[in-house]
Amino acid sequence: MGLFTVGQARDELARLLPVLDEIVALRADAAEVAASLVLGGPPTSIGGLPEWKAAQARLDELMTVVQQTGAELKGLAPLLVDFPAELDGVPVLLCWLEGDRELAWYHRDDLGFAGRRRLGN
Q1: How far apart are CA 89 and CA 103, in angstroms?
Q2: In which element (H, E) is residue 91 found?
Q3: Alpha-carbon distance 104 to 3, whole Å?
Q4: Rounded to an integer, what distance in angstroms lies between the CA atom of residue 82 and that of residue 80?
């Protein structure tokens, strides 16, 4: 897949937000069920092993949906999605972090998250 413009990445993120929200919810459910499955783990009303397996399968499906857009899923907890781009001739990753409601950050691809800067509008 190619590079995104800032506008294309923002549009794609808007389409992906329901998917990303579902990933966050499923991740929490899967963690709670997994904790309950450990010997002596706290009980949960969410379910047991079948529900954990179903959550894992759905998470895999949703992560594939994200990656098929050309975006890069960089982290699951917290959820981190990068959109490859170029700004002023420099390769960058337009960076979305769980909790953001818009795409407002980028970092050079060689610097990673530590080099994160706010996008100009």
Answers
A1: 20
A2: strand 90-97
A3: 17
A4: 7
Beta-bridge partners for 82: 72, 95
| Alpha helix ranges (H) inside 1-121 | 6-37, 49-68
Phi, psi of 93 (to 5 degrees): -120, 120
Q: Coil, strand, or helix at residue 81?
A: strand
Q: What is the pLDDT of residues 95-117, one digit of tens each?
A: 999 999 899 999 998 998 899 99
CA distance linking residue 63 with residue 20, whole number of Å: 9
- Mean pLDDT for the stretch of residues 27-35: 94
Quick check: 103 and 10 in contact, CB under 8 A?
A: yes
CB 80 within 8 A of CB 100: no
Q: Is the pLDDT of residue 1 over 90?
A: no
Which residues make Cβ contacts (< 8 Å) with residue 26, sequence separation at least 6?
55, 58, 59, 62
Instruction: For 44-72, write each residue's pLDDT tens digit.
Output: 999 999 999 999 999 999 999 999 999 99
